[in-house]
Amino acid sequence: MSENNEKKEPFSEDVELNLNQPEDEFNKKEKLKIILILSVPVIFIIGLIIILLVVLNSEEKKETKKNKIIVKYNILSNNSDYNILGFLNESMNDVIELMKIDNKVINNSFKYNFDSIGNHTLEIYFKKNLKSCEKMFQNCREIVEIDLSGFHFEEVVSTSYMFDSCINLVNINFKNVDTSNLVYMNSMFTNCYKLTSLDLNSFKTNNVIDISYMFSYCKELKYININKWDTSKLEQMRGVFTRCTSLTSLDLNNFNTPNLKETSAMFYQAYSLEHINLDNLNTSNVVDMGSMFNGCHSLISLNLKNFDTTNVIEISGMFNECHSLLFLDLSNFKIPKVKDISNMFFNCHSLTSLDVSNFETSDIESMSGFIQGCSSLTSIDLKKFKTEKVQDMIAMFSGCSSLTSLDLSHFHTPNLVDIFAMFEGCVSLTYLNIENMNTSLVEDFRYLFSGCSNLTSINIDNFDTSNAIYLYSLFKDCKSLTNINLKNFKTSKVKGMSGMFSGCSSLTSIDISNFDTNNVTEMSYMFYDCTSLTKLDLSHFDTPNLVDMEHLFEYCTSLTYIDISNINALKAKYYNAFEGMNDEGIIIFNSTIFPKEILDYIPNNWECNDIGNKTLIINKL
């Protein structure tokens, strides 16, 4: 009983037991509780930080995803409204969410009057993705920089004229721009005068069909990188590098263009271009190559061996004014569909040879200026040329100053209408055969042989001049001609004969007794400087419509006999008509139709026989 009733110290045994035990479960739990209690605020704080970072990151992403364009302007005057936008295909308020200038919100507008001169920044925020950027900044002449890195380009189909006439634009940021849906890029950078370089290799162009005039008139552009473009769908390259006057080389070696249709004026007046790589350009479907290299003054050579021209319709002016071009291999050129080869090699001063033997010309209608100005060309073989449909041969060989011989006896020309200046300036030509040319429809014979100073004879016996109206300077400066047979010339419709024989200094006589001059109004300089002529019988010349005979016989220093008894000069100008002639001679005139005062210009000691009054005047001065 006493043991049972003994008073025990509370927990003494338990405590003693706990003290005797090392780290037990109880202590572990207690410590864990303490750690957890202490960790709660730390975890809470970390959570808040994470939430804050997530929010900030999402806001940042939201900001970067905003559809915007940043534009910088250089304003020189604050007295007028400036174009800050060119054009939008949709209503401005439907497209634009917000516009800021220098961080100040402005009303949506295409124009803005800046409050100060100098640099200003425009931010444009868009409500939605655009499908067209056509003319977006056209004529915004004060823009100097454009940043498109934040603009959603992925749905854009057209950038036609997007930067047209941004004449002070020097930099465009295309970073992150997705052009995979682009179809039209024509005239995109037209008239961007101050752009000096463009690296557009990152552009996805697999859907593009039109880049015509894309870089035209970018006069300061010295570098363009587009070598990696996908051009498989490209159809239009018309005028793409027109007037890129600072470009010296272009590598388009990777351009594979099975659908290409137009390359006209592609390099028009790219004056400084020395080298173009077009080795892989596919031209099998091209229909227009007109003026393709026109004005490429610095080009020395061109490899066009792979050019397929079988579908080409327009080729005129293709190499016009390629002044430095030394050689052209056109042996593969076939042009069965072409009707016009005018000015094709105009002013190719440096070409010494030209093989056009494969040219199919049976449908050609115009050959005007074909090799005009090819001053180094010594010969050309045109034996295969068919000319039955040709209407126009204006200046075809004009200025070919090194050509010595031309056999055109195979030229049959029943449809020929105009041969103005056809052989003008062929100063080295000693042989010319045109005996089978049909000129029955020709009205204009002006300057036809003018300047052919080494031709001693011209067989034009078969020339039909029944429809001729103008014979101006026909044989002007044919200094070696000793004889001309003009017996078959019909001149009843002719109005102009001015300068016709001017400078024919070797002609000793001319038989033009068959000339009908009834409709002639102009005869100025007709025999000017014919220094070997001794006699001129123009008694059959009836000229009721004559209004100009100035310098008619001037410097005919050997002339001693002139019969102008039927020439009517009552309405004619006559200044210096007889200046510089021989001191002595005989002239027969009719004072009733030829005023005596004109004779005041005749040198001393000429016998002036007036058949009108049957008088003789000697020593009139």
Strand content: 5-15%
Rg estimate, integer Å? 44 Å
Mean model confidence by pLDDT = 90
Calculate the terminal CA-CA distance, rounded to whole Å.
190 Å
Q: What are the secondary-structure elements, in order, as H or E?
A: HHEEHEEEEEEEEEEEEEEEEEEE
Q: Can you summarize the main beta sheet?
A: 6 strands, mixed
Q: How large is the count of helical segments?
A: 3
Number of strands: 21
Strand order of the largest sheet: 4-3-6-1-7-8
Using brief descriptors, characterize the structure shown:
mainly beta, five-stranded mixed beta sheet, disordered N terminus, 9% helix
Give a short overview.
By secondary structure, the protein is mainly beta.
Question: How would you explain this protein's 3D organization?
Answer:
- The protein is mostly beta strands and 621 residues long.
- Among the domains are: 46 residues; 97 residues, no CATH class.
- 9% of the residues lie in helices and 13% in strands.
- The chain contains three helices and 21 strands.
- A six-stranded mixed beta sheet has the order 4-3-6-1-7-8. A five-stranded mixed beta sheet has the order 17-18-19-20-21, with no helix packed on it.
- Strand 3 and strand 4 form a beta hairpin.
- The longest helix is centred in the first third of the chain and has 40 residues.
- The protein is elongated and about 160 Å long.
